[in-house]
Amino acid sequence: MSITLKYVxxxxxxxxxxxxxxxxxxxxxxxxxxxxxxxxLSPKEWDDTKEMLxxxxxxxxxxxxxxxELIKKxxxxxxxxxxxxxxxxxxxxxxxxxxxxxxxxxxxxxxxxIFLKEQIEDLKEARRFGTADSYKSLYNxxxxxxxxxxxxxxxxxxxxxxxxxxxxxxxxxxxLGSLGVYMRTLRAxxxxxxKNGVAKLEDYPFKQYTIRKSDAKRTALSQVEVKxxxxxxxxxxxxxxxxxxxLLSFFLQGMNWMDMCLLKGENISSDYERITYVRHKTxxxxxxxFFKQAKEIIENLSGRSISQIGKNEFVxxxxxxxxxxxxxxxxxxxxxxxxxxxxxxxxxLNIDHFTIYTARHTYxxxxxxxxxxxxxxxxxxxxxxxxxxxxxxxxxxxxxxxxYNEEMFNDL
Length: 412
Description:
Elements: E1 3-9, E2 20-28, E3 31-41, E4 46-47, E5 52-53, H1 63-86, H2 94-105, H3 107-110, H4 112-125, H5 129-145, H6 159-171, H7 176-195, H8 223-231, H9 237-251, H10 257-262, E6 274-278, E7 285-289, H11 292-302, H12 324-349, H13 358-369, H14 383-395, H15 398-411
Antiparallel strand pairs: 1-2, 2-3, 4-5, 6-7
Helix pairs in contact: 1-2, 4-5, 5-7, 9-11, 9-12, 9-13
């Protein structure tokens, strides 16, 4: 009934740079199980005999602390396993013993990085790739803040930790807007950890720390700049396509980039007069008039007429029928390229820097400038304001909105 616990570098999943995941291997009753630590290490910096990180390693800020954490985790798990065996659980396999021991010790759940990594994987499985990317950005942010040290526990994220993180972020020249994104994401993760019994409510740091707000400025093009964009032509296909993607979002009532990418022939009515779709971000259903300007842009981008687009075919030449994760990365990469091209366009046309996202803001502010009632729109476009704006727009009904859109687009 002997058990063996040993730290090993798992050779089955070596990264391209040679790093391997550090795992605690449990051997019991001729069966084995591996317990993840959340760390990736190089064989050159790991002492397999002593089961510790070599003092020469630059992987973490404090090697001694790292090794002490490993010893502590191993000892706690060992005590938990022997306690389970003494209570009559000797019939379990190594995997079953591991699962019960982890729940008993709470070591796995108490680790901020391990919990966050599991959340990222769960989000990917749920096809919530945008939130998964936000969590991954937070993972890297905190990892860099701690100089690669991944031994962080939730109770260590206190007021001082958050204040220091804020100070380092701002000292590097980053703004309050991006700081707010990281802090709100961290707050969401901490709240999830509390709900899952991973973190304790009494340790919650956001009772003392207040996330600083910034006056976010959304760049909306003026009517003159929109006309300048419409009248422009670029010999470079990259620039011309980027311009068309921006204008398409504008003429599709400020449609979000992802929603444009996911549009299929089935979203277009049989008479080619309307587009009906469900916004990916909110799950809300929209029906918008399909104006000639949008039709012409789609035909230019896709190289075919609207009538040739099959019901199950994507309207724009961005996606194929690839797996969701690949599609998510393809959309993100394409958006980056479009934004890079829009920056060049702005330089050539003497327009302040703008991105594909601002087409939504340009659409809303253009409506206001064109005399649309203020009850239908809001000038600022933050996340909540976007939802509010769309609610106001929908409350007027399709016919009223079609009229305002038609008047504005014709003026251009």
